[in-house]
Amino acid sequence: MDRTDRGGDDVAGRIVLIVDARAPEAARAACDEAAATLAQRAGMPVTLALVPVQTLDAVQPVLRRPPARLREIDPPSTADPAAMSSARFVWRRDGRPDWGAMWTTFCELALYGGPPQRGADSALRVPDRAHGLIASPAVLAELQRGIRETTGLAAEAADPGWIAVVCESGRMAAWLCAAIIVENVEARVDGERLLVPAGHDFLLEDQVRSVITVVAKTHHYWREHLGRLARG
């Protein structure tokens, strides 16, 4: 039901999300997404109001007047964030991982205060290249398949210890690289290619899974959030 059907400025029967107009652009974009998700899940309209801080200060007494109830939710601490919990591992009938079915949603990126994919004590680094060891064909194939199933992007073998994800642009590769590094997974950029670790000793449910996860979640954020800002 649109606004004209509701009688002008009537807000009865709708949810109102009030945001300080001076909030950072990334925070406002997150509020846009939260409002859309809330409207879908609640099945009712959501009004997103960007208002000057002076207006917020003026309405504070009214908002806090009984029987109104306010609940404030603080962002997670970034002082020493613990690693994110792992999603349930999903297998296909043929015994291979079903990478595309393992994630329906993604937690906030470590870049924006979410828990990193790996803890600082288990950060994923490229193996010592002095040994000249490369990932097995099975590990490379699983990384390629997982990245393709979760992002649609192709990946190819690179220098020993690395696999290269072919991005849409150099800007995209650079942004994904920066976001992945904060997840405690090493990454670097080569033009339009994003390079992430592919070690000879990687295990399917540990390092392989972590690499696919960080590529998937950062690509999801790039496509859904930053892409929306660019289109707007």
Structure, described:
- This protein folds into 2 domains: 3-63, no CATH class; 99-231, Alpha-Beta Complex (Aspartate Aminotransferase, domain 1).
- 38% of the residues lie in helices and 12% in strands.
- The protein has 6 helices and 6 strands, in the order H-E-H-E-H-H-E-E-H-E-E-H.
- The chain has helices at residues 3-6, 25-42, 53-63, 137-151, 170-182, 204-231, and strands at residues 15-20, 46-51, 155-157, 162-166, 188-190, 193-197.
- The strands form 2 sheets. Strands 3-4-6-5 form a 4-stranded antiparallel β-sheet. Strands 1-2 form a two-stranded parallel ribbon.
- The radius of gyration is 22 Å and the shape is elongated.
Keywords:
single chain; Aspartate Aminotransferase, domain 1; 2 domains; four-stranded antiparallel beta sheet; 6 strands; elongated; disordered N terminus
Per CATH, the architecture of the largest domain is: Alpha-Beta Complex
General form = elongated
Number of E-type strands: 6
How many independent structural domains? Answer: 2
Q: Round the Cα radius of gyration to an integer and report it.
A: 22 Å
Classified by CATH, the class of the largest domain is Alpha Beta
Fraction of residues in H or I helices = 25-40%
Uncertain stretches: 1-8, 76-81
| Class by SSE composition | alpha+beta
The termini sit apart by 24 Å
Summed up, the helix count is 6
Provide the succession of SSEs: HEHEHHEEHEEH
Beta-strand portion reads 5-15%
In round numbers, the mean pLDDT is 79
CATH domain topology of the largest domain: Aspartate Aminotransferase, domain 1
